[in-house]
Amino acid sequence: MDVYTSKQVQAVNGTDVRLKCTFSSSSPLGLDVTVSWTFRPLAGGSEESVFYYHRNPFPPTEGRFLGRAVWDGNIQRSDGSIIIRNIQESYNGTYLCQVKNPPDVHGENGRNFSQSG
């Protein structure tokens, strides 16, 4: 499994930003493809779930991304991208995109570094 993301994304406070995550798999894409987005704050602190996809999009049910993280991908086109609406300075950090397509579940995570200002 290979996952590709933009290395660095910059956004203006209050705007929407698309975090791109595309992938390629050695196995045909099946129904069990999962996409997990997590966030590591630049200022430190614990890792936080941003978004999860498995057959359907599952936006966050709590935390800073509640009501702000939106699915913008298309699994059949090998796209696991999301949009973060109304970006804030507290969203500066590293966003990790992990894709699994059983039995092809090994590989690198894609990383986006986001900075707003």
Model description:
- There is one protein chain.
- The chain has strands at 2-5, 8-11, 17-19, 21-24, 34-41, 48-54, 56-58, 69-71, 82-84, 93-100, 110-116.
- By secondary structure, it is mainly beta.
- The protein has a single domain, classed as Immunoglobulin-like (Sandwich).
- The strands form three sheets. A six-stranded mixed beta sheet has the order 2-11-10-5-6-7, with no helix packed on it. Strands 3-9-8 form a three-stranded antiparallel beta sheet, with no helix packed on it.
- A hairpin with a 6-residue loop joins β5 and β6 (48-54).
CATH domain topology? Immunoglobulin-like
What is the residue-averaged pLDDT? 88
Supply the CATH class. Mainly Beta
- Count the beta strands: 11
Coarse morphology: elongated
Into how many domains do the coordinates divide?
Answer: 1
Largest sheet: 6 strands, mixed
Structural class: mainly beta
SSE blueprint:
Elements: E1 2-5, E2 8-11, E3 17-19, E4 21-24, E5 34-41, E6 48-54, E7 56-58, E8 69-71, E9 82-84, E10 93-100, E11 110-116
Parallel strand pairs: 2-11
Antiparallel strand pairs: 1-4, 3-9, 5-6, 5-10, 6-7, 8-9, 10-11
